[in-house]
Amino acid sequence: MKRLVITERACLIGHVLSLVFGWAGLLIVLPNPDLIASLPAIGEKAFAWSMAGGGVVYMLLGTATVAIYAYRTLGLWHWLTFMLPAVFISLGSELSGTSTGFPFGHYSYLSGLGYKIAGLVPFTIPLSWFYVGFSGYVIARAGLERWLKPSWLRDVSAIATGSLLLTVWDFVLDPAMSQMSVPFWVWHQPGAFFGMPYQNFVGWFATGCVFMTVATLFWKKFPTHLPSKQLGLPLAVYLSNIAFGAVLSLAGGFWIPVILGVSLSIVPAFILYRTANSTQISDLEKLAEIQQAKEKTAQVPVASVGVMPK
Question: Does the structure show a pLDDT above 50 at 283?
Fold first, then answer.
């Protein structure tokens, strides 16, 4: 278990560092051709590699981080019954979207995100749906356990909240990634909201709801208690990816999507995280009270509890 924790943290650090490296390349090096020309040969190769495969690395590291976390804290069943629906259902939506325009609108991926499945969707994209979606879902579900008793209402609320957190990630990231000097995807019919069609957000939310619903139904077969005191990692993964998109969009002058996106992502995520932690503290306090009551009972003289000594 200790090795898993070490590997998990190493992947998380690598994931965050690769995001920072992406900022440097996209915002500092790429806009300054003279800077690229002044780099030594090894520097030019490193920059060329980062542009060709940097996006792949940070998504693979994000996937590895969350996969290890899910396996370590929830077990093999709960990890795979979330990851597999997330990957395959999102892949189906992406293949449909890039070929027919449903459910996101008409768009296509360019280079920089790895090998394309069926020549349409980079293999890293469904993986990103998994690790960001899982992070948002477990934060939402753990936080809602404080307010709602186990019921269909809590399940639906967790699915809707997790899907909203997932959708907001694209809300923040999409303007920059589709309209920067070197875009990673393009909209063939630009929408009214900073180049994005409103249909895109509906498609994201609906896709998230579908695979989170499937995962929830699987999880009901073997109920689990989410590790409230260990939500720091999914929170770090989620917020670092929100920050990545926010910084790029701000650099591109997209202030409104960032302001709205941050309000709908960081604030709810922190509230849910703090609520989940307070639930953990409350549970510990109850256990302490029970233990103290047992100790007091053990100290009561036998005669005082109505039992006559022989």
Answer: no
How many residues in the chain? 310
pLDDT digits (tens, 9 = 90+) for 117-175: 999 999 999 999 999 999 999 999 999 988 888 899 999 999 999 999 999 999 999 99
Q: Please state the three-class secondary structure of the chain as a single string.
A: CHHHHHHHHHHHHHHHHHHHHHHHHHHHHCCCHHHHHHCCHHHHHHHHHHHHHHHHHHHHHHHHHHHHHHHHHHCHHHHHHHHHHHHHHHHHHHHHHHHHCCCCCCEEECCCCCCEECCCEECHHHHHHHHHHHHHHHHHHHHHHHHCCCCHHHHHHHHHHHHHHHHHHHHHHHHHHHHCCCCCEEECCCECECEECHHHHHHHHHHHHHHHHHHHHHHHHCCCCCCHHHCHHHHHHHHHHHHHHHHHHHHCCCHHHHHHHHHHHHHHHHHHHHHHHHHHHHHHHHHHHHHHHHHHHHHCCHHHHCCCCC
- pTM (two decimals): 0.86
pLDDT in tens, 186-239: 999 878 888 899 999 999 999 999 999 999 999 999 988 777 778 999 999 999
